[in-house]
Amino acid sequence: MNSENIIESIFTPFQESINCEQDVREEIRNIMKDIEKPLREIITTLQIIHRSQMGEEAACGTARNLFEDVRAGFSRLNDVVPEGQYYRYNDHWRYATQRLCFLAALVIFLEKGFLVDKVTVAEILGLHEKSRLHLDLEDYLMGLLNLATELSRFAVNSVTYGDYNRPLQISKFVAELNAGFRLLNLKNDSLRKRFDALKYDVKKIEEVVYDLSLRGLVPNSGGGESVE
């Protein structure tokens, strides 16, 4: 075998591998378009909470219906991603998954008022019991940090339409979330940097509650009357 044939025998399989990978990535990108569409619709639907109390329940119901399309998309994605190669391709869906974790956590907060756990988020997104996909802990935690930022905005906007109870609920919730994150020894750079921003969300919410208390608008525990 001459040198030219040797080079060809070595590099030809490489091109086949590259072509195969590109085909997989293209198929993943197409599926992600179908997942990102309901993602955007959920974001738009839930923006109503920043304008009015009315319609919050209906918005959560609509969001839950849209999550069905998300689950269908991840089911298709599970069939496409080669077995054992999750981390080779997960850059395609990491950001969208973090956003979806945030939205799932927001819906549960609005409906129930508590912090959703990782297993439940995986079920809402359709990432539980998948053979080739799973919900990364980092994506779940990023989603919770995004939730804190959204709630700090929600606290401010709640006051503008006269809901003075909501900032108190948010303040307690985010303070507990912050305490939970402080139990973690975060070594991931991106996650650590995002966590460092949490203190600004906490401060913003505390300022809203403090301003309400100065104006005598903090409801008491008895009957919702203002504190004089």
Automatic annotation (TrEMBL):
Its main location: cytoplasm. Mg(2+) binds at E150. InterPro entries: Translin, Translin_C, Translin_fam, Translin_N, Translin_sf. GO terms for molecular function: endonuclease activity; hydrolase activity; metal ion binding; RNA binding; sequence-specific DNA binding; single-stranded DNA binding. Keywords: Cytoplasm, DNA-binding, Endonuclease, Hydrolase, Magnesium, Metal-binding, Nuclease, Nucleus, RNA-binding. This is Translin. One of its GO terms (biological process) is RNA metabolic process. It comes from the Eukaryota. GO terms for cellular component: cytoplasm; nucleus. The keyword Transcription does not apply. Belongs to the translin family. Ring-shaped heterooctamer of six TSN and two TSNAX subunits, DNA/RNA binding occurs inside the ring. The keyword RNA-binding applies. DNA-binding protein that specifically recognizes consensus sequences at the breakpoint junctions in chromosomal translocations, mostly involving immunoglobulin (Ig)/T-cell receptor gene segments. Seems to recognize single-stranded DNA ends generated by staggered breaks occurring at recombination hot spots. Exhibits both single-stranded and double-stranded endoribonuclease activity. May act as an activator of RNA-induced silencing complex (RISC) by facilitating endonucleolytic cleavage of the siRNA passenger strand. SUPFAM superfamilies: Translin. The lineage of its organism: Eukaryota, Metazoa, Ecdysozoa, Arthropoda, Hexapoda. It is found in: Cytoplasm; Nucleus. It comes from Tenebrio molitor.
